[in-house]
Amino acid sequence: MAHVSAAERRPQLIKAAIDLMTREGVAAGSTRAIAAELGVAQTTVHYIFGSKEGLYRAVMDQITDELVAHVKRAAPEDAGFEETIIAFAQSLWGTVREPTSHHRLLSELTMFALRVPGLNEARQGHYQRVIEVTAQVITETAKRTGQKLAESPETVARFFLSGFDGLTMQVLVALPDETAERTGLRALVAATVALARGDLELPDVPTA
């Protein structure tokens, strides 16, 4: 059998892990099962990634890269501010509804990472990257359309993503309800646009 270098095997194992956990869930993603998915020895996984946590970090990074690339492509270049946010939200929502996008798996991994100290950095890095890219889309859209922002792009991005995460969680845990999903997404877009334009004022709510 021809020798396969670690550099070649690494993306193969990441894909095998994604395929397995997409089908059977994060709990099924042991190093033994992932190795079997690709047909290699379990020691190969540990040699390349060091541990299961190392492999999971690589999986989260890979899916985050895919999501970030999708987000960057989502915003149209010739629409108004509100129309751009609508298109952006619809495109991103498509990744939640489409199983092959791995968005749901990333949500599961993010929750799993809350209880695994070795994955905290990957979880935080994923969310920060998504915030930064979303804020960049908002900044560039505002500049292109001449829309003055009443709040910082990061504040608007965090507001949108918080609501989007809530809608995503409803899809993960509740029965499918396309009408409720469309209503929720429309409300989130309307509130995000209102916040950006200054029509929605953020109250001073103490956190402690």
UniProtKB/TrEMBL annotation:
Keywords: DNA-binding, Repressor, Transcription, Transcription regulation
Ranges of the DNA-binding region feature: 30-49
Annotated ranges, domain HTH tetR-type: 7-67
PROSITE patterns: HTH_TETR_2
InterPro entries documented for this protein: BetI_C, Homeodomain-like_sf, HTH-type_TetR-like_transc_reg, HTH_TetR, Tet_transcr_reg_TetR-rel_C_sf
Keyword presence, Repressor: yes
PANTHER family, per database record: HTH-TYPE TRANSCRIPTIONAL REGULATOR BETI, HTH-TYPE TRANSCRIPTIONAL REGULATOR RUTR
The protein, known as: TetR/AcrR family transcriptional regulator
Provenance organism: Streptomyces sindenensis
